[in-house]
């Protein structure tokens, strides 16, 4: 069959974790009231920022690496169909099978059917944002198949019947006492005397997972990179649990977003320097696992690659917003964002939180389904400075704000402002009238209803005693 990218359709409703149950302002209000959550986030993001800053400072060519990463990603998006077809050909040549999934429903159906064919009732999973995005675990459970997360943080989230709140550290919102309580409540065979000492918690997880690794015949993974030149897939991780999943089972199923493809093997040189420093503050990833198709007698003997669109073609169609597809899921933008640090990831309602989620999720779903997320930012620009592939997140946020639906009252106010500003005499009168704001509200720092909604979360700037026009006229 001829392979092709899907038409620019957004991710379907009713499946996956891209849409929240409530808008960001309401969810953020709840999160801000959780003092323990804010302490956990502040400690974690501060630690990661400091560690990352130290190792980045060691590289004199860091900015050149960022530019190279950005250029590679731009090249990928300019010829994505060609690279994906090349990747499919190379994977097939090496004994793998490639499946194309237009959306979450198709991807979940493909993976579920592949697992069923093996007769397995349980699968082990490598940490994967793509499978979280499409709610694959829920689809497998509905089919009577038990998914077991093997990444420690993902395991904590799964056992706690929770949702990830960070791209790199999904359980960043939990402290070690909370993790101990989750293990005692939900982990089979755990020692009732388990303490919250980190080595003890890690040992408990290791004992639980060891039997699972050795007795499960099917694994599901994501992919950080797919190399079109050779058909090689790559997963980077910090614990080694992912490597167990990628080497021990008989069948391996990988779900990869179509934007994760890179043209050549040499491109990894750039990304394997950028990713660990920007994400975990390490010089290199502790575990980088790569595989190409099937190797007789070594590793999984059945390999399936599911190429996932699920709204990515719609993002690609936007000349400004497509930058979001450059993302390598390092989480650097989350760790520097003052909004994320105070609200956490759950407030975003999507598996992709923080600044990158505020620009990626609305495009994957359609802006109207996530209309509040482009406004979940102070536009301070820290995310742009931190991004290792130079995604201009502030510019995309402004772009998406222009696409978001606005209340009729706000539209009326903006039309009135535009009318006044385009007429110099009327604008001059409005400036003189604005001085009345000195006596409006409390000490001139708030506006009366119905405009009070705008100043409920911000101070009204004090109107100067003299306008520029008055100053100019006087001279």
From TrEMBL:
Record keyword Repeat present: yes
Domain of life (superkingdom): Bacteria
Pfam families: Fer4_8, LUD_dom, LutB_C
Annotated spans, Disordered: 1-20
Residue ranges of the TM segments: none
Keywords, ordered alphabetically: 4Fe-4S, Electron transport, Iron, Iron-sulfur, Metal-binding, Repeat, Transport
GO molecular function: 4 iron, 4 sulfur cluster binding; metal ion binding
GO biological process annotation, one example: lactate metabolic process
4Fe-4S ferredoxin-type domain sequence ranges: 324-391
Residue ranges constituting the Lactate utilization protein B C-terminal domain according to the UniProt record: 402-475
LUD domain boundaries: 84-294
Protein name: Iron-sulfur cluster-binding protein
Native source species: Actinoplanes siamensis
Source taxonomy: Bacteria, Bacillati, Actinomycetota, Actinomycetes, Micromonosporales
């Amino acid at each position: 069959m001829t392979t092709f990218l899907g038409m620019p359709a957004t991710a379907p409703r009713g499946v996956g974790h891209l849409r929240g149950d409530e808008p960001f302002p309401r969810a953020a209000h709840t999160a801000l009231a959780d003092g323990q959550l804010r302490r956990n986030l502040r400690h974690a993001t501060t630690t990661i920022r400091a560690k990352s800053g130290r190792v980045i400072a060691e590289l004199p060519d860091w900015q050149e690496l960022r530019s190279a990463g950005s250029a590679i990603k731009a090249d990928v998006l300019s010829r994505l169909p060609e690279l994906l077809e090349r990747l499919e050909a190379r994977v097939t040549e090496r004994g793998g099978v490639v499946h194309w999934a237009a959306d979450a429903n198709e991807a979940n159906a493909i993976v579920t059917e592949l697992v069923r064919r093996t007769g397995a009732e349980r699968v082990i999973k490598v940490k994967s944002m793509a499978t979280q995005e499409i709610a694959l675990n829920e689809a497998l459970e509905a089919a009577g198949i038990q998914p077991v997360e093997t990444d420690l943080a993902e395991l904590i989230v799964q056992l706690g019947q929770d949702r990830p709140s960070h791209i790199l550290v999904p359980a960043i919102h939990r402290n070690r006492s909370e993790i101990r309580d989750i293990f005692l409540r939900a982990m089979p065979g755990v020692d009732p005397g388990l303490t919250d000492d980190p080595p003890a918690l890690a040992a408990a997880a290791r004992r639980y997972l060891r039997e699972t690794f050795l007795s499960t015949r099917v694994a599901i993974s994501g992919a950080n990179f797919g190399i079109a030149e050779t058909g090689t897939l790559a997963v980077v991780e910090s614990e080694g649990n992912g490597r167990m999943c990628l080497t021990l089972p008989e069948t391996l199923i990988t779900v990869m977003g179509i934007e994760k493809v890179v043209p050549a093997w040499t491109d990894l040189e750039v990304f394997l320097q950028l990713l660990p420093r920007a994400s975990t503050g390490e010089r290199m990833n502790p575990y980088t696992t790569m595989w190409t198709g099937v190797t007789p007698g070594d590793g999984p003997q059945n390999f399936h690659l599911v190429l996932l669109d699920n709204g990515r073609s719609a993002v690609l169609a936007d000349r400004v917003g497509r930058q979001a597809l450059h993302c390598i899921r390092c989480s650097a933008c989350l760790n520097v964002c003052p909004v994320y640090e105070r609200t956490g990831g759950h407030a975003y309602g999507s598996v992709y939180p923080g600044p990158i989620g505020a620009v990626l999720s609305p495009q994957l779903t359609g802006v109207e389904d996530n209309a509040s997320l482009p406004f979940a930012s102070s536009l301070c620009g820290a995310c742009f400075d931190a991004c290792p592939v130079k995604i201009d997140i502030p510019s995309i946020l402004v772009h998406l704000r222009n696409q978001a639906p606005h209340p009729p009252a706000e539209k009326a106010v903006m039309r009135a402002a535009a009318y006044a500003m385009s007429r110099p005499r009327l604008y001059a009168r409005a400036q003189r009238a604005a001085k009345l704001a000195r006596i409006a509200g409390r000490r001139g720092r708030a506006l009366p209803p119905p405009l009070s909604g705008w100043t409920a979360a911000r101070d009204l700037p004090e109107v100067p005693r003299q306008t520029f026009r008055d100053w100019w006229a006087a001279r």
